[in-house]
Design goal:
Elements lengths: L1 H25 L13 H15 L8 E2 L7 E2 L6 H20 L16 H5 L9
Antiparallel strand pairs: 1-2
Length: 129
């Protein structure tokens, strides 16, 4: 009987854990470049990096919510700049993959990488390089 209670208890924890993992992966909508299972903390950190590198606010890429006037609709693709941002994110990922992460014995944080700030340097529309 005790074994059955233990088994049921473990099963409940497993189901709750799986549900929590799936729920957190589903809370971000319309991610096309960034990983769908990215943590909220990591996503916020990346977005903060992007806004600082370009000296812009969130509404540069994200449109206003139709339901909540004082909020942004992060899932919406209404603004063309959002797709441009995706292209730039893909570009930096590809540059870093092709030119900096070829030696897997080196940790990425130990080397210089290309980021938004490499070209933008606090300007939403950097001059031609």
């Amino acid at each position: 009987m005790n074994q059955l209670k233990t088994l049921v208890g473990i099963s409940i924890f497993v189901v709750i854990g799986i549900s929590a993992t799936k729920m957190s992966a589903l809370k971000h909508k319309n991610l096309k470049v960034l990983p769908k299972d990215i943590s909220e903390k990591k996503l916020d950190s990346l977005m903060d990096h992007y806004t600082k590198a370009l000296a812009v606010t969130c509404d540069f890429c994200h449109s206003a919510s139709k339901e909540k006037p004082d909020s942004l609709d992060f899932a919406s693709d209404d603004k063309l700049m959002k797709e441009e941002a995706r292209k730039m994110i893909r570009l930096t990922f590809q540059l870093n993959k092709d030119y900096f992460y070829t030696d897997k014995t080196i940790k990425p944080e130990d080397i210089k990488t290309v980021s938004c700030n490499t070209c933008h340097r606090g300007d939403a529309f950097p001059a031609d390089l």
